[in-house]
Amino acid sequence: MNRDFTRRGFLAGAMAAGAVMGLSACGGSSASDAGSMRSGTDSSDGGAAYDGPLVALTFWNGFTGGDGAYMKSLVSEFNSEKSNINVTMQTMQWQDFYNKLPTSVTAGKAPDIAVMHLDYVGTMAARHAIQPLDDVAKALGLSEEDFAKAPWSAGVYHDVRYSIPLDVHPMGLFYNKRLMAKAGLDPEQPPLTLDTYMNALDKLKSKGIKGHWASPFQFTGGMSVYSLVSQFGGSFFSEDSSKAIWHEDAGIEAMNWWMKLVTKDYSPSKVSQDADFVAFQNDKCAFNWNGIWSINTLKENKKVDWGLAKLPKIGKRNSVWANSHQFTIPSQRSVDQNKQQAAKVFINWISKKSLEWAKGGQIPARNSVRNSGDFKSLTSQSILATQIDDVVFPPTVPGISDAIGEFYKAVNDIMLGGRDVSQVLRSSADRANKILEQNMRKYQ
Predict the structure, then answer these.
(1) Which one, of 274, 236, 248, 254, lies nearest residue 401 by Cα?
(2) Could you check whether the bond before residue 220 is cis, i.e. omega within 30 degrees of 0?
(3) Is the Cβ–Cβ distance between 171 and 320 less than 8 Å?
(4) I want to staple 221 with a disulfide (CB 3.0 to 4.6 A). Which of 89, 215, 230, 343 is the partner?
């Protein structure tokens, strides 16, 4: 996943959340309409093998960036191995994907396989746009022991599994070795605690270097503050996911620390979108908290002398923003048992082969792949994989992305408007709570 793809994809996804749910309010595409589609789970025997006649499968995803080439290569390899299954991959912008999937189900034209971000699994499950996959997990003998805990748990909605995790893509600390050396810092020892981080920023500042450009935008500022809320001991939502609570003490502390980067002159004010990453590559910014998808971009830029580490522990505990791509099987108006079985074979095969996918800037969710020597040879990805138990995912709740979008708006308002941290966070949580209430009624 390259950086531009991910930023655009998630921003578009945030916009699409409202559009996807809005479809249910328009004639001809309600949740009950989608619910009339058959899941086909009653006739499945899992995904271990397929010995039937030749079937052609369609596979939808939003891999429009550099990672798309890696997935395309995997699909080609699968097709070359399976004489009786042919998969055609259709790639589109994530916004289009989240808009089109429910309507394709209602129209009886759904793809056979789809990959989506974990924060949309609840929405699509509630709209009956995707099928339960407990039978797949059972037949293949898959359980939490086979996957990282967080992405595995994220595929469950109302105690039913609707997705199989493919990967995890977290943030990390990218550090500019050239600037660290200029400030008298050891370029091979990135600061990973609050004290060492602030000391490094002070030394960089003494040399006229703004060490950490604090972005006001979701990419990467909002995701950074998201990480910090958890680091300072907070949560985004109540235990039952009915209330947004990022306005509480931990959220205020996290936002104030982020703002301090600007007020203490460690960062320019009002950093424009992506300027932090550009400055990092131009030797003007020493530290950049960014996503794993930035690895390949930096590898291609031979002018940058950079290193990578897990996100620093600024608060009380190690926590890091992350998301996950999850395999799903869309609901069908008319169930073709051969296609259903072949789709499960494909999902299982890709999961086992996710080392190649990792090269595109991902961490395999499957433990056997992540723990392999071949994955560990991917040095950068392996470094960020040490955070696999520290990732912070939103709950699997319909429309959760709409609610979280209010948090990202709050970060932007505070950073660009100079508004009161406590007041803005509380107002954004109040708006998010109204969204959560509306969704509870819509999807009950």
Answers:
(1) 236
(2) yes
(3) yes
(4) 215
- Domain chopping of the chain, boundaries: 3-166+324-392, 171-322+399-443
Are the beta carbons of 310 and 192 closer than 8 angstroms? Answer: yes
Please check whether residue 197 is in contact with residue 191, taking contact to mean a CB–CB distance below 8 angstroms: yes
CATH 3.40.50.1220 is right for the domain spanning 3-166+324-392: no
Same fold, 3-166+324-392 and 171-322+399-443: yes
Q: What is the 3-state secondary structure (H, E, C) of the chain?
A: CCHHHHHHHHHHHHHHHHHHHHHHHCCCCCHHHHHCCECCHHHCCCCCCCCCCCEEEEEEECCCCCHHHHHHHHHHHHHHHCCCEEEEEEECCHHHHHHHHHHHHHCCCCCCEEEEEHHHHHHHHHCCCECCCHHHHHHHCCCHHHECHHHHHCCEECCEECCEECEEEEEEEEEEHHHHHHCCCCCCCCCCEHHHHHHHHHHHHHCCCCCECCCCCHHHHHHHHHHHHHHCCCCCECCCCCCECCCCHHHHHHHHHHHHHHHCCCCCCCCCCCHHHHHHHCCCCCEEEEECCHHHHHHHCCCCCEEEECCCECCCCCCEEEECEEEECECECCCCHHHHHHHHHHHHHHHHCHHHHHCCCCEECEHHHHCCHHHHCCHHHHHHHCCCCCEECCCCCCCHHHHHHHHHHHHHHHHHHCCCHHHHHHHHHHHHHHHHHHHHHHHC
Using one digit for the tens of pLDDT, what is the confidence trace for 19-56? 333 332 233 333 333 344 444 443 344 467 899 999 99
Mention every residue, 6+ apart, whose C-beta is less than 8 A from residue 429. Answer: 243, 244, 245, 246, 247, 406, 407
Asked if the 171-322+399-443 domain carries CATH number 3.40.190.10, the reply is yes
Which token pair is 69? 């080439």
**N-term to C-term CA, the chain:** 35
| pLDDT (tens digit per residue) in 230-245 | 999 999 999 999 999 9
Measured CA to CA, the distance from residue 220 to residue 69 in angstroms comes to 25
Note the pLDDT tens digit of each residue in 242-260. 999 999 999 999 999 999 9
The answer for residues whose C-beta is within 8 angstroms of residue 265's C-beta and 6 or more apart is 205, 210
